[in-house]
């Protein structure tokens, strides 16, 4: 049913994968498909803010995230599941939407907190942005 499933996770937030990863694994196992796991290292923002970080901060952040992602996949994904890891630097919801197109996935699995009206009004959530713009179905797992 779902040959290519994209799971988005935040490596610094266990809730982003604790419930969503088992759901994605079960969907992939049932269909015999491939699990793609994406984590996005967010951009710092303005050049002014960037000046407060060490010169090679982006490189170090990507290296640390890559190790953490690999360790998570080794410890949490069973051997019978084909998994491909994606680590991208940039805008979270934009990079998720780009990855959907690049890998031509059939389904996106994301975790999201219980909605908070004030926070959603002021900032919005990445899950909400992806759901509204995704060309494929999105399974939102409540964390």
Provide a descriptive summary of the structure in words.
Helix 5 runs parallel beside helix 7. 24% of the residues are buried. This protein is α/β, with parallel strands linked by helices and 143 residues long. The protein has helices at 15-18, 20-31, 47-50, 57-76, 92-103, 117-122, 126-133; strands at residues 4-9, 34-42, 82-90, 107-112, 137-142. It has seven helices and five strands. It has a single domain (4-142), classed as 3-Layer(aba) Sandwich (Rossmann fold).
Which terms summarize this structure?
about 140 residues; alpha/beta; Rossmann fold; 7 helices
Q: Considering DSSP H and I runs of 4 or more, what fraction of the residues is helical?
A: 40-55%
Largest sheet: 5 strands, parallel
What value does the Rg take, in angstroms?
Answer: 15 Å
Structural class, by secondary structure, is: alpha/beta
| Architecture (CATH level 2) name | 3-Layer(aba) Sandwich
Q: Going across the major beta sheet, what is the strand order?
A: 3-2-1-4-5
Characterize the quaternary organization of these chains: single chain
Count of separate DSSP helical elements? 7
End-to-end CA span? 25 Å
Could you spell the SSE succession in H and E letters? Answer: EHHEHHEHEHHE
- Secondary structure tally: strands: 5
Principal-axes geometry comes out as globular
């Amino acid at each position: 049913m779902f040959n290519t499933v994209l799971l988005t996770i935040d490596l610094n937030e266990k809730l982003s994968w604790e419930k969503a990863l088992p759901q994605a694994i079960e969907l992939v196992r049932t269909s015999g498909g491939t699990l793609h796991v994406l984590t996005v290292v967010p951009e710092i923002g303005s050049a002014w803010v960037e000046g407060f970080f060490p010169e090679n901060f982006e490189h170090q952040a990507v290296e640390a995230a890559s190790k953490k992602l690999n360790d998570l996949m080794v410890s949490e994904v069973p051997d019978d599941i084909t998994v491909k890891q994606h680590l991208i630097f940039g805008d979270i919801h934009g990079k998720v939407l780009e990855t959907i197109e690049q890998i031509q996935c059939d389904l996106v699995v994301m975790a999201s907190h219980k909605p908070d009206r004030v926070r959603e009004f002021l900032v919005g959530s990445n899950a909400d942005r992806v759901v509204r713009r995704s060309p494929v179905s999105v399974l939102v797992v409540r964390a």
